[in-house]
């Protein structure tokens, strides 16, 4: 009887521990992103909404009001599709970005540093839909960095270039 109570107590403690870890992981926001903000742009920018963090916290409504472009391409993870969203250069222009290095930050804590001119050269967009369907967190969204990979195979169909196709984008740090 003593052993069964100890086993039950042990299992309860393990359950409490793992539930706490899962809950913490679900609420953890990566550095460079802000909770309840659609896209956070920080660093060397001229326009901020949060001076204490030197960041522009863009709402979903504000992001969706920007003019959009379409990129038709495939990725290593998706078939050829029509991706739609504002140009990266438009988003950076909205915050008066002054730097030339960008750190793209995803909800899963992935981040990559890239030259802004490199991405702008190919007309990179911040896609919010694929083939007419709004991107969700489960399907590369809400924002997926996208450029016309199929149109520039020799330059963009490489492992390094694929690392710039950041999905679940939540932050851009401008250096």
Helix content: 25-40%
Net shape: globular
Radius of gyration: 20 Å
Give the integer mean of the pLDDT values.
87
Beta-strand residue fraction: 25-35%
Order of helices and strands: HEEHEEHEEHEEEEHHE
Low-confidence stretches: 5-26
What structural category arises from helix and sheet content? alpha+beta
Number of E strands: 11
Number of helices: 6
Order of adjacent strands in the largest pleated sheet: 2-1-11-5-6
Distance between the termini: 64 Å
Q: What profile does the largest beta sheet have?
A: 5 strands, mixed
Question: How are the secondary structure elements laid out?
Answer:
Layout: H1 2-27, E1 39-43, E2 55-58, H2 60-64, E3 69-73, E4 81-85, H3 88-94, E5 101-106, E6 111-115, H4 116-121, E7 125-127, E8 129-130, E9 133-134, E10 144-146, H5 153-156, H6 159-162, E11 169-174
Task: Tell me about this structure.
The protein has 175 residues and is an alpha+beta fold. Helices cover 30% and strands 26% of the residues. It has six helices and eleven strands. The protein has helices at residues 2-27, 60-64, 88-94, 116-121, 153-156, 159-162; strands at residues 39-43, 55-58, 69-73, 81-85, 101-106, 111-115, 125-127, 129-130, 133-134, 144-146, 169-174. β5 (101-106) and β6 (111-115) form a beta hairpin. The longest helix is centred in the first third of the chain and has 26 residues, at 2-27. It starts with a helix and ends with a strand. Residues 5-26 have low confidence and may be disordered.
């Amino acid at each position: 009887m003593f052993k069964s109570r100890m086993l039950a107590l042990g299992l309860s403690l393990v359950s409490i521990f793992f539930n706490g870890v899962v809950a913490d992981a679900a609420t953890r926001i990566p550095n460079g992103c802000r909770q309840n903000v659609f896209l956070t742009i920080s660093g060397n920018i001229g326009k901020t909404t949060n001076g204490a963090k030197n960041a522009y916290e863009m709402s979903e409504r504000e992001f969706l009001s920007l003019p959009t472009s379409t990129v038709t391409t495939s990725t290593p993870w998706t078939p050829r599709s029509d991706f739609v969203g504002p140009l990266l250069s438009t988003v950076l222009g909205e915050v008066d970005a002054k730097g030339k290095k960008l750190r793209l930050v995803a909800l899963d804590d992935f981040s990559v540093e890239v030259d802004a001119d490199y991405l702008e050269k190919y007309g990179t967009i911040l896609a919010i839909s694929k083939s007419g369907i709004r991107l969700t967190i489960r399907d590369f969204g809400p924002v997926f960095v996208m450029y016309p990979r199929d149109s520039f195979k020799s330059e963009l169909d490489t492992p390094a270039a694929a690392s710039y196709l950041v999905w679940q984008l939540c932050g851009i740090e401008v250096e």
